[in-house]
From TrEMBL:
Superkingdom as given in the UniProt entry: Bacteria
PANTHER family linked: GLUTAMINE-DEPENDENT NAD(+) SYNTHETASE, NH 3 /GLUTAMINE-DEPENDENT NAD + SYNTHETASE
Sequence similarity: Belongs to the NAD synthetase family.
Alphabetical list of InterPro entries matching this protein: C-N_Hydrolase, C-N_Hydrolase_sf, Gln-dep_NAD_synthase, NAD/GMP_synthase, NAD_synthase, Nitrilase/CN_hydratase_CS, Rossmann-like_a/b/a_fold
EC nos: 6.3.5.1
PROSITE patterns from the UniProt entry: CN_HYDROLASE (PS50263), NITRIL_CHT_1 (PS00920)
Binding site for ATP: G287, L288, S289, G290, G291, I292, D293, S294, T394
Name of this chain's protein: Glutamine-dependent NAD(+) synthetase
Length: 542
């Protein structure tokens, strides 16, 4: 019976940090060697980070990756290392090289290049044409890269070449449906080939995507041997028994079933933390309105960065309720963040006074309402500049979808944590966060903020439902139209009022121009606005 000891480096390897990534590989390789591993594996495109996008078009960047790979190979002794990297040999490949005894022993090329959703591999890479196999400690292993395992042919070819297990390195971004899809695909590949699978995934936030780790060990019969913790950097240990093609995880944390809100919350926290830290900002600030969106954003920011790195600003106007004032103050004081109250009333009135001659003869409308929001945006951007803290936009996906947001007003911000979170889910996350860790006050988000009717407070007695369908109905239509790509007729056939569906779809299509100017935010659904959903601004399609 042959047994192989494996170390899996479920870590963050930031995009563009080639030298730092190589240094991390070197350190983790030393740990794996000291721990008696025969093989240590690293995620997809370890050296460049994923996705490196148009950095791959720069020869100097490719040369730096190649130089670091060669240096790593020269330093690799006493353990075999599998390292992901871009491989340039006239054309560029998404590659993984096996480093052994001071040299690059072989290089595998990714065969299946995804070009859907957030993936754009065909823009940068050429496909590989063969599944690589090698022998480590007397056991034959196939080497595959991410999308290769989602297709039947690469795994089948590795098995036909004698592979007993498949080492799959990945940069697979998280969304709320991803884990079930991964496990189904891995189970199917194992059952088709009889090969066990070690599925190693990247972890960390990168612009609009968040990688969860969630590394998996799958036995040769398709059963799940172990699940790694999500959104956690860790070196994982396992042993493979070739006699029955099974895995034994070594001291992996027990993974109990977590509610969907817990995993989503962790994804948003990781996205905020990595975006701020990787871009070198000391902290964040946000407008705290006394509404649920900004309250949840504040809770996420504090959980991601700590209260010392968060500033909250309440900017009341003549329409701001006492409930909003009290809710914002109570939450800011309870969480211990830097808190300011800056009235917009005088500044807003000065704008109105200046514009009155040009507005003459026209009744008051959304122009005056939006001007309040834009006054706040100007003040928040000034504070961001002065204090060097990145401004977080607090809008949610429901608002972004139908354009219930003000350009250069509440859309101001460099990062939007809730951009891919529907309003109904905002409520679920807020309730879960209060239940998960209440603290001395019994809440993180004041219950009165959660329970109140949502309102932009830009006119007297305003509520969101003055302008929009109830959020339960709105979100159900949006999810069918955006994630489901259903037609209006298909949505109506599911019991929704035709006039409401037409109105909602019209708003989605009409407001593409706003979304193109919105801040990036973490992708957490199967179809996010941004790099994944790119509709034309100018279009006759309705």
């Amino acid at each position: 019976m042959a047994v192989l000891r494996l170390a899996l480096a479920q870590y963050d390897f930031p995009v563009g940090a080639v030298a730092a990534n190589a240094s991390k590989v070197r350190q983790l390789t030393a740990q794996a060697r000291a721990g008696g591993a025969a093989l240590v594996a690293f995620p997809e495109l370890t050296l460049s980070g994923y996705p490196p996008e148009d950095l791959l078009l720069r020869p100097s960047f490719l040369a730096a990756c190649d130089s670091e790979l060669k240096a790593l190979a020269a330093d690799t002794h006493g353990v075999v290392a599998l390292v992901g990297h871009p491989h340039s040999e006239g054309e560029v490949y998404n590659a993984a090289s096996l480093l052994r005894d001071g040299r690059i022993e072989l290089t595998a090329h990714k065969q299946a290049l995804p070009n859907y959703g957030v993936f754009d591999d065909k823009r940068y890479f050429r496909p590989g044409h063969a599944s690589a196999v090698t022998v480590i400690d007397g056991i034959c292993v196939g080497l595959l890269i991410c999308e290769d395992i989602w297709q039947a042919e690469p795994a089948a070819a590795a098995a036909a070449a004698g592979a007993e297990w498949l080492m799959v390195i990945n940069a697979s971004p998280w969304d709320d449906a991803k884990q079930a899809g991964r496990e189904a695909a891995l189970k199917l590949r194992a059952q088709e080939t009889g090969c066990a699978i070690a599925y190693l995934n990247l972890v960390g936030g990168q612009d609009e995507v968040v990688y969860d780790g969630g590394t998996l060990l799958v036995n040769g019969d398709g059963s799940i041997a172990a699940r790694a913790p999500t959104f956690t950097d860790t070196l994982l240990w396992a042993s493979f028994d070739s006699a029955n093609r099974t895995w034994q995880a070594e001291n992996w944390p027990e993974m109990s079933a977590a509610p969907a809100e817990a995993t989503l919350y962790a994804a948003l926290v990781r996205g905020i933390r990595d975006y701020i830290d990787k871009n070198g900002f000391g902290g964040v600030l946000l407008g705290l309105s006394g509404g649920i969106d900004s309250a949840l954003t504040l809770a996420l920011a504090v959980d991601a960065l700590g209260p010392d790195r968060v500033t909250a600003v309440m900017m009341p106007s003549r329409y701001t309720s006492q409930l909003s004032l009290d809710g914002a103050r109570e939450q800011a004081e309870h969480l211990g963040v830097d808190y300011h109250v800056i009235s917009i009333e005088q500044t807003y009135q000065s704008f109105i006074d200046a514009l009155t001659p040009a507005f003459a003869g026209k009744p008051a409308d959304t122009s005056e309402e939006n001007l309040q929001s834009r006054t706040r945006g100007v003040m928040l951007m000034a504070l961001s500049n002065k204090h060097g803290r990145l401004l977080l936009a607090t809008g949610n996906k429901s608002e972004m979808a139908v354009g219930y947001a003000t350009l250069y007003g509440d859309m101001c911000g460099a990062y939007a944590p809730l951009k891919d979170v529907y309003k109904t889910v905002v409520y679920k996350l807020s309730l879960w966060r209060n239940e998960a860790g209440q603290g001395d006050a019994g809440w993180v988000i004041p219950p009165a903020v959660i329970e109140r009717p949502p309102s932009a407070e830009l006119r007297d007695n305003q509520t969101d439902q003055d302008s929009l369908p109830p959020y339960d109905e709105l979100d159900a239509i949006l999810a069918r139209f955006i994630e489901g790509e259903q037609s209006q007729a298909e949505i109506v056939a599911q019991g929704f009022q035709a006039d409401t569906v037409r109105r909602v779809v019209r708003l989605v299509l009409l407001n593409e121009f706003k979304r193109r100017q919105s801040a990036p935010g973490p992708r957490v659904t199967t179809r996010a606005f941004g790099r994944e959903r790119r509709y034309p601004i100018t279009s006759g399609w309705r």
